[in-house]
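Milestone 3.1: sequence recovery, worked example.
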């Protein structure tokens, strides 16, 4: 199992617009519906320009499938419009 933690530092004043664009394009729903997706959840950071994404996938193949999806490509387009920087951490995990 893999846990991915993503921190988006959005362009000033764009966090809510970015999150709404994600929802309007059903990126969150489509990602959750993918085989191998255990968790895919956005949350707002304390700073007004932060948006966090927590992803949990059953294996590397599920992540690769996700990265090749149309909605992942759309997320990249939205990031170009609304996000300044992206920090990404990936952990291998074992369910206990």
């Amino acid at each position: 199992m893999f846990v991915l933690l993503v921190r988006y530092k959005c362009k000033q004043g764009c966090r809510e617009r970015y999150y709404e664009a994600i929802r309007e394009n059903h990126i969150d729903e489509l990602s959750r519906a993918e085989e191998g997706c255990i968790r895919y959840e956005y949350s707002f950071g304390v700073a007004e320009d932060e948006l966090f994404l927590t992803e949990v996938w059953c294996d590397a193949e599920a992540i690769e499938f996700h990265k090749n999806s149309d909605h992942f490509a759309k997320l990249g387009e939205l990031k170009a419009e609304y996000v300044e920087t992206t920090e990404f951490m990936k952990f291998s995990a074992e369910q206990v």
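The chain has a mean pLDDT of 96. The chain has four helices and four strands.
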